[in-house]
Design goal:
This protein is of the alpha/beta class. Helix content is 36%, strand content 17%. Helix 8 (227-238) links the parallel strand 7 and strand 8 (241-245).
Length: 429
């Protein structure tokens, strides 16, 4: 039996999968295996991975410690559900609760970030007995019906129908919009005034504000440090909960902090924190951390068939241990800082680059949507041709290259990737 060619696999993909299931590249690639910060396609081409399966391969491809933990757990038992005691789940929950910064924390595991945000919305609306949610403009929180209903990015919101009443708040994008010209302090003051004005027009209780400390799909945009701390003070006056969506910002990726909310810590931790992606290093793990009174507010039965499965929890434990023992947060700070400065130097002479922004190994290169430089699709194609995989994102008026390598990235690999990006941004290969 012959192996189907990449083209025929693409044809088969289009025959049986939805048209809206997007693929990168004019000639999509099939990734067959990986090691460290590299992956290989079905034709044997090697790529430096600067996107990690959308920030999910957090430590490294085929990390031996995670592979060993998964293999050993698979040899014992793969699945049991939450109806039975599960040692790996309890052990990972203990570690996540302690790391979260939330007092008297409880942890519930899901299978994805979308499901984690769904659960957070369920908890907040049940606790507050309200379906009113504050969300940030340009935000993204997942693919489910309720998560789409609070997504402030039209490119990822295919319907206006929602079980929630969503009110969108200013502040998630520093460099665009009506407050962009203000200083950081004035920007925060204006956004807080806007929040107060909005709350003055709502009727009944608002359940929660959900916010990504750094907006992922929106193009790695963020407010000035302290904005959500200032928001938190206003929210407390009304009893409104704060949900920090850490699906992309968690686990030390930003270098400066273990969680994104810690850049806004003046008013304390969030009431609810959601996580996913990197903790499983590719295994399907999501979850919610909340104060005990919030987590325990549900008065109906609830379980998770696949959330917290023994095999994914074993992977999460091994991955988290590796991350902490090897100080990958520190590596993200050091190598990411060097990479950001290198990319800013490149951008100074590259046509059509509007801004390089980010923290640690979470970096966005925003391109002008019109002008002399190559567009995002052209840059991504050029990078692939030269052996580099990157991502893209942005809001309704922006186009952003997203760079988020595994957190074990070396200085030499950062320099290699920067060199490829330099050639791609200048339209050369």
């Amino acid at each position: 039996m012959t192996t189907p060619s990449r083209t025929s696999l693409h044809d088969r993909h289009r025959d049986v999968l939805p048209d809206w299931l997007a693929l990168y590249y004019d000639d999509p690639i099939e990734l067959t295996h990986g090691e460290g910060r590299h992956v290989w396609d079905a034709e044997g081409r090697k790529y430096l991975d600067f996107f990690g399966g959308i920030l999910t391969t957090m430590t490294a491809h085929a990390l031996p410690e995670v592979t060993k933990a998964v293999s050993e757990q698979a040899g014992r038992i793969i699945h049991s559900s939450t109806l039975y005691l599960n040692r790996p789940m309890v052990e990972l929950a203990e570690r996540v609760a302690q790391l979260s910064g939330i007092p008297d924390a409880r942890v519930f595991f899901t299978t994805s970030g979308t499901e984690a945000n769904d659960t957070a919305l369920l908890l907040a609306t049940a606790y507050r007995r309200s379906n009113q949610i504050l969300a940030m403009r340009n935000s993204y929180h997942g693919r489910s019906f309720s998560a789409v209903g609070i997504t402030g990015n039209k490119g990822w919101s295919p319907t206006s129908l929602s079980p929630l009443q969503t009110l969108y708040v200013h502040g998630g994008v520093r460099g665009r919009g009506p407050y962009a010209h203000l200083s950081d302090a004035e920007f925060i003051e204006a956004c807080v005034a806007d929040l107060r004005d909005m709350l003055g027009q709502t009727r009944g209780n608002v359940a929660a504000l959900i916010a990504e400390p750094i907006q992922g799909v929106g193009g790695f945009t963020s407010p000035p440090d302290g904005l959500y701390a200032a928001f938190r003070e206003v929210l407390r006056e009304h009893g409104i909960l704060w949900i920090s969506d850490e699906v992309q910002t968690g686990w030390g990726r930003t270098g400066e902090h273990f969680w994104g909310w810690q850049a806004h810590a003046r008013s304390g931790p969030p009431d609810i924190l959601t996580f996913a992606k990197g903790i499983g290093n590719g295994m399907s793990i999501g979850g919610v951390v909340a104060r005990a009174d919030v987590m325990n507010c549900l008065d109906a039965n609830s379980i998770s068939t696949f959330g917290g499965s023994p095999i994914t929890m074993a992977a999460g434990l091994a991955n988290l241990s590796y991350l902490l023992e090897h100080d990958l947060q520190g590596n993200a700070r050091r190598v990411g800082g060097l990479l950001i400065e290198r990319l800013r130097a490149i951008a100074a002479s590259a046509p059509g680059v509007r801004e390089v922004r980010g923290r640690g190994l979470m970096i966005g290169i925003e391109l002008e949507t019109t002008g002399p430089g190559p567009n995002a699709a052209q840059v991504i194609e050029s990078c692939r041709e030269q052996g580099l995989l990157i991502g893209k994102g942005g809001g309704h008026d922006s186009s952003v290259l997203r760079i988020a390598p595994p957190m074990t990235l070396t200085v030499a690999e950062a320099e290699e990737g920067a060199g490829i990006l330099e050639r791609a941004l200048h339209g050369s290969t």
